[in-house]
Every structure is written in C-alpha cells, then in structure tokens.
Amino acid sequence: MSYGSLARSIWFVVVVAFIQGLHPTLARAQTASDEVDAPAHKSASAPPSSGREARNKAWSAAEEPYIGAGAPHWRYFVEFRARNAASYGHMYVMFGEVNTRHEIIKSEIAGMFPAGDARGCENCSIYYWTIGHVLPVPSEIGASDGDLEEQYVLARFRVWIDADQYKRLSAYIKERKAEKGPWNALFANCVVFGRDVASFLNVKMPPVAAMGLLYPQGMVEAVRKANGLEHEQLPLRDAGRSFPRESRINGQTKISPAERAAEQTATQKAATVESARTGGPTQ
Fold it and tell me: What 8-state DSSP symbol labels residue 61?
C-alpha cells in the first residue's frame, strides 16, 4: 500500500470516529434542552417519560395526533418505536388497522438493520453490523428479533392516519423493501429509515431529528414532543386471537415467552392428570 492510500485510510477512520462521536454530544444537547423546559419541582431521579407515567393517565385516541384528511376515524395508526438492543438500541415503525375498540386487527413492522441473520444463525448480522460502522453493507427492511416484545420498548410515538395515507404508506414500505440499499451506522441506519417514514407522512420533526442525528430513543422522544405530546403513550392491545400466535421474523418462527410458558404449564398439568389416572407416567 502506498503512503497516499494509507493516509487516506487513516483520515477516513478519523472522520468516521469524529462523526460517531457527535451522537452522544447531540443526545446530551437534546437532554439538556428538555431539562431546561422541565418544571423546577420535578425530581431529578424521575425519568422524563415512562410507561409507568403513561399508565397513570386516562387514555383516549382523541387525545393523540391525527394527521389524515377530514374528520378522524381512528382506524389506521403508525407507531414510531425505539427498543433496547445489545448496542445503542433500534428504531422501527409499526403500522396497521384497529377495530372500533382501538384493538389491533392488522399490523406490519418495518425497520432497517444489517443483513445476515438467518434460520439457525441469529447473530450472523453482527459481522455486517461491525463492518457497517466503516463501510456500507447489505441491509434488510422488516421485523427483527425483539420488535414484538413489549418489555424491550423504550419509547413510542403514535399518530393516526386516514385510509388513503395507509395505502400509500404500505406501498412506500413495499417499495423500500424492494430497493433497500446498503446499511451504514452513520448515514443509512434505522434512525434514518424512521426519519424517512416520518418525512413521507409529513410528521413534524425538530431539525436535529430531521437530520437523523439522534439515537433511537432520543429520536422517537424528540418527534413525539415536536407533535405536542410530553408523556409516553400506552400500547394498543391486540384484538383477541385475530393475530397468528406465531410470527415469522427473519425466516424464524417466534412464539412469545408468555405463551410458551403457558403451553409448558398446560402440558405438565395434562401429564400429571394422565399419570394419576393411569397410575404411572405417560410415555
């Protein structure tokens, strides 16, 4: 390698490290701004927004933003979510339809992440994730492991849309999946994808969010506050058993831990009853 190529490589790594270092700085700036606006009597130990705080409030869909045309019908929704992950979190979008009781009857999840995970190899994307902090790598757009687990959700912002917006959003997500392009930790990541969806729907965003320069949780909270909501929103409920019990994520079948535990308990009880009836263990 020539000295010129070596110098360019070193300079590229330095620039990447500098830009990566902007994320904590911007996150701290956002936090500092929120603290200035917060009431003086608020406890420093209390989180600015939490699911517990939301549960103490009476919930009504009419109190949430509606960005559709005409009178709101509260049938179609879009949720921008941030969840825990092994690194700095993950941002994704969940959109769908609810019934008259505001229970979800249909939904889809879309988030951008490095390609690589497959059946029998859940951590293959770690390779692309690591390389993707320097170079563009193949990506996937869809649901990832953990998106359906409510206990991992750090922040959510939900808006309601009309039927035409829902159709156009579905088409837009389908188009993005077909032409997903590369993933990169700096300029083509889950936050940038979430920003693109928000921009497509003309959702209000502060400048720092419009540039995609926040971590997932900070991004969702910033967009939520820009749209007039200070508190965390409650999750929508599923409409009974209208959803399939099993969800396909990256080619793998996922069953919720609660349902798996319930099945194991039911199986053990059935085995105990059968054993007592026959006077011996079942085969």
Answer: G
Q: Is the pLDDT of residue 252 over 50?
A: no
Please, is 132 exposed, middle or buried when counting C-beta atoms within 10 Å of its C-beta (0-12, 13-18, 19+)? buried
CA 100 to centroid of chain Cα atoms: 25
Coil vs helix vs strand at 253: strand
Instruction: Report the alpha-carbon distance of residue 144 to residue 81 in Å, rounded.
Output: 13
- Model pTM greater than 0.70? no
Q: What is the 3-state secondary structure (H, E, C) of 99-119?
A: CCCCEEEEEEEEEEEECCCEC
**Which residues pair with residue 111 across a beta bridge?**
142
Contact status, residue 10 vs residue 17, Cβ threshold 8 Å: no
Q: Is the dihedral of CA 19, 20, 21, 26 positive or negative?
A: positive
Round to whole Å and give the CA distance between 227 and 223: 6
Task: Mention every residue, 6+ apart, whose C-beta is less than 8 A from residue 19.
Answer: 186
| 3-state SS class at 73 | coil
How many Cβ atoms sit within 10 Å of the Cβ of residue 275?
12
Q: Is the pLDDT of residue 251 over 70?
A: no
Contact between 182 and 192 (Cβ < 8 Å) = no
Angle at 182 between CA 181 and CA 184, to 5 degrees: 140
Q: Coil, helix or strand for 283?
A: coil
